[in-house]
Design a protein that fits this description.
The complex is a heterodimer of chains A (287) and B (277). Chain A has one domain: MetI-like (MetI-like fold). Chain A has 14 helices and no strands. With 277 residues, chain B is α/β, with parallel strands linked by helices. Chain B is elongated, with a radius of gyration of 23 Å. Classes of the chains: A mainly alpha (287), B alpha/beta (277). The interface between A and B is medium-sized, with 29 and 31 residues.
Chain lengths: 287, 277
């Protein structure tokens, strides 16, 4: 019998490509059938080739001066700050939303769940247009934000965070909801029968139980936010230091200075690899 | 631990082999497609000698040409039944980058000689580009001009949300030239990737003003209000057009350029607000 903790870890592992620890090893020695091996290697090479090309074509000699320019650091800092803020925002509202979807029963829950996942499949530019119509200065809600509080989101760093949250939060919600469904609700029920309120049970029992899922979802959301382009340029525009994140800088640099675009891409690649490597270690020791 | 390390090592070696294989494969296919394009090119140039045109002609054109070229495309299809004109409207610099990057296109119409030079310098053009229209800048403001913008200087007023095209895009370069010529400094809220993106921000009332082309203001109808400014005379853009060297449908490309330069084509363009070359 698999304990609920193992199950939740397994969900997190599926999302992150894990684990090695319980795999049965005896199959590997028997050799891999060719019809599987060849397409598998082709697929692997296909995924790796663009990254290798990036490294091969990198302007290594001029790289130091490319990367020490103020614009690069400005864009990188903005990207990191915005992606982190978007992830934090997603956590604050996304985890409760995932709990609502997994643990309560209300009419139309399936529809709500489908709507939550919509930004996953929606082209980001469409998301940006929708955000403009909703939260823009003249938008459905945005006009009230403007006239009551003087808040306008387009063309601001806050706008970047909003755009990234819109695109990235579904990743977190789906990941956490999956973990919650896999987690055994009887622990929470036991806690409530022992006198804990439902919120205390969530805080003390559920939250620690689904931590791996939350971590996996956060990384997915963070990575998605870091790479967000379409919704950002549509909703928040493009101004260096304020709304020009790394992907925007890469895109615009590619038009006139491909070497700079490659250098910027390398930075993003390095950041992504660093995060993946760093978090992988933590998960392996945590579980 | 050592066992898994050895396994990783072997996996890496296998991966290496796979990468080499795929590299070889892509090398083959790229030479294949190149020869394929060549043969297609020679085939269509043969058909060019005969008056009957067919197939698709792909036109990469500056975003500001959207309305007038769409009209001309329909006329072209009417004149040459069996042909189809497909357009890619975007910032001229982005189009130039995709053409030098190998995007298959027959005709390139840019909004500035500088962006055209990217294509001609990379020797992707067949022959010399010809200027077919010119375009002048204009300020697009909200309907009714609530901020009372009447000059380029008014646009630099603090508190006004102004969008410009990115400096690499012809409309942005021209706007910068006009600002520099009149010694004005303007900090926009955004540098947009093409002129239509800049115009859209005003149409949606997210920005108070944008520096765009006269043709864009005219095309937007009553969604924006145009304000002409004398400094725009210092920054008039020439629009060059050229047939591309690797044009898959060279015959139709020639015919389309001829239509753009014909009196009929020029009429469509001047009606849209373009200036004669």
């Amino acid at each position: 019998m698999i304990s609920p903790h193992d199950k939740s870890a397994a969900v997190a592992d599926t999302l992150t490509g894990g684990p090695r620890r319980r795999r049965v090893r005896n199959g590997a020695s028997r050799g891999v059938p060719l019809p599987l091996l060849v397409p598998a290697l082709a697929g692997l090479a296909f995924l790796l080739l663009p990254l290798i090309a990036l490294l091969v074509r990198a302007p290594w000699s001029s790289l130091p001066e490319q990367l020490t320019s103020a614009e690069v650091w400005q864009a990188l800092r903005l990207s990191l700050v915005c992606a982190t803020a978007a992830t934090a925002l997603s956590l604050v509202v996304g985890v409760p939303l995932a709990w609502l979807l997994a643990r309560t029963d209300f009419p139309g829950r399936g529809l709500v769940r489908a709507l939550v996942t919509l930004p996953l499949v929606l082209p980001p530019v469409v998301g940006g247009v929708a955000l403009l119509l909703a939260l823009g200065r003249n938008g459905v809600v945005g006009q009230w934000l403007d006239s009551w509080f003087g808040i306008t989101l387009p063309f601001t760093t806050a706008g970047v965070i909003v755009a990234e949250t819109f695109v990235a939060m579904p990743f977190l919600v789906i990941s956490v909801e999956g973990t919650l469904r896999a987690a055994d609700p009887r622990y929470e029920e036991a806690a409530t029968t022992l006198g804990a309120s439902r919120f205390t049970a969530f805080r003390r029992i559920t939250l620690p139980l689904i931590m791996p899922g939350i971590a996996a979802g956060s990384v997915l959301a963070w990575a998605r936010a870091l790479g967000e382009f379409g919704a950002t340029i549509t909703f928040a525009g493009n101004f260096p230091g304020r709304t020009q994140t790394m992907p925007l800088a890469v895109y615009l640099a590619l038009q006139n200075d491909p070497a700079a675009a490659i250098a910027l891409s390398l930075v993003l690649l390095a950041v992504s690899i660093a995060v993946l490597a760093g978090l992988r270690d933590r998960w392996m020791t945590a579980s | 631990m050592t066992r898994s390390a050895r396994r990783t090592h072997r996996t890496l070696r296998l991966t290496g082999a796979g990468v080499v294989a795929l590299l070889a494969l892509s090398a083959c296919s790229s030479s294949d497609s190149a020869s394929g394009a060549d043969s297609a090119g020679s085939g269509s140039s043969a058909s060019a000698s005969s008056p009957k045109l067919s197939g698709t002609v792909t036109v990469f054109a500056a975003a500001s040409l959207k309305e007038s070229f769409t009209t001309l495309g329909k006329e072209f299809e009417k004149k040459h039944p069996g042909t189809k004109v497909t357009f890619n409207f975007a910032g001229s610099d982005a189009l130039a980058a995709s053409i030098t990057g190998g995007a298959p296109a027959d005709v390139f119409a840019a909004a500035s000689p500088k962006t055209m030079a990217i294509v001609t310098d990379a020797e992707n053009a067949a022959g010399a580009p010809a200027t077919f229209v010119r375009n002048q800048l204009e300020i697009a403001t909200l309907p009714g001009n609530p901020h009372q913008v009447s000059s380029l200087k008014d646009v630099t007023k603090p508190g006004l949300k102004v969008v410009l095209c990115d400096k690499e895009v012809p409309c942005g370069a021209a706007a910068q030239k006009a600002l520099d010529a009149s010694r004005l400094k303007l900090t926009p809220v955004s540098y947009e990737q093409d002129v239509k993106a800049a115009l859209t921000k005003v149409e949606l009332k997210e920005a108070d003003a944008a520096v765009v082309y006269q043709t864009d203001v005219q095309a937007a109808g009553d969604k924006v209000e145009g304000v002409e400014f004398p400094e725009s005379a210092d920054a008039v853009n020439d629009y060059p057009i050229v047939q591309l060297k690797d044009a898959p449908n060279a015959g139709a490309a020639k015919a389309f350029i001829a239509l753009v330069q014909s009196p009929e084509g020029q009429q469509v363009l001047t009606e849209a607000g373009f200036l004669k070359p």
